[in-house]
Amino acid sequence: MNPLVGIIAILIGGLVIPFLYLKASTRMPLRAVIVPVLLGLGLLAATLIIQPVIQAAPLVALNVDRDSIAFIAYSSLVSGLLQEGLKLSAVKRYQGDYRALWVGLGFGGGEALLVAYLSGLSYYAGQAGGAATFYYLLSAYERLLATTFHVASTAILATAHWRLYSRYALAALLHSLLNFTPAYIAGGRDIASLSIDALAFMYAGLTLLVIITLILALRGVSLWRRAGMLEMGL
Fold it and tell me: How big is the CA angle at 216 (ends 211 and 217), to the nearest 5 degrees?
């Protein structure tokens, strides 16, 4: 399959579909969401700088095996705590504000752009051939799950109010489990080497975690909406 089609599929799953859903559900003009989206992109940039350093610490200091369960669990926990912590610092200014959801879109959509860019770069640099349609569709679905999770976890934080830090712990735990699942099942192997059963189990687990996060987010938004506490942020 032409890699350009795969790149487009990744962008549709990880950026276009979540954008259209948020645009329809929040009904906010583009001028009102530019700053939150840019903030989400900024948080992603900070993550790309800080997270690898923290995750690599055991490898350097203790010579830990990268594929060990202990390291996978540690790396997953770091990603959950750090990324949700960065979101928490950002959405404190957007409590009860629909713009918080767009911070999540900026983060998740930025990841989709990065994955699409790296996929294209690896192909045109001659490091990878065109993958089967099945794997492009999996990548697109994975990006849809990832961006949906980032938006939903941000919504959990933005509607937490007085339970802010307990909700942060919940979002971080779900995020860590979301990252642990594929890393543990793959065990350092390329996704193309996994059996259909392993892939089905992995994506079923990822889907379940995202659905749980989405339900919690929708419940929080619904409660705030009924109380008349959600703002359009215009």
Answer: 95
Average pLDDT, the chain: 89
Which pLDDT belongs to residue 1?
60
Query: Bigger pLDDT: 158 or 66?
Result: 158
Q: The whole model's pTM is what?
A: 0.92
Which helix (H) or strand (E) element contains residue 51?
A: helix 30-61
Helix count and strand count (H, E) for the chain: 8, 0
User: Which residue shows structure tokens 């583009």?
Assistant: 30
Q: Cα–Cα–Cα angle for 70, 146, 184, nearest 5°?
A: 25
Q: How far apart are the first and last CA of the chain?
A: 44
SS3 assignment for 67-107 = CCHHHHHHHHHHHHHHHHHHHHHHHHHHCCECHHHHHHHHH
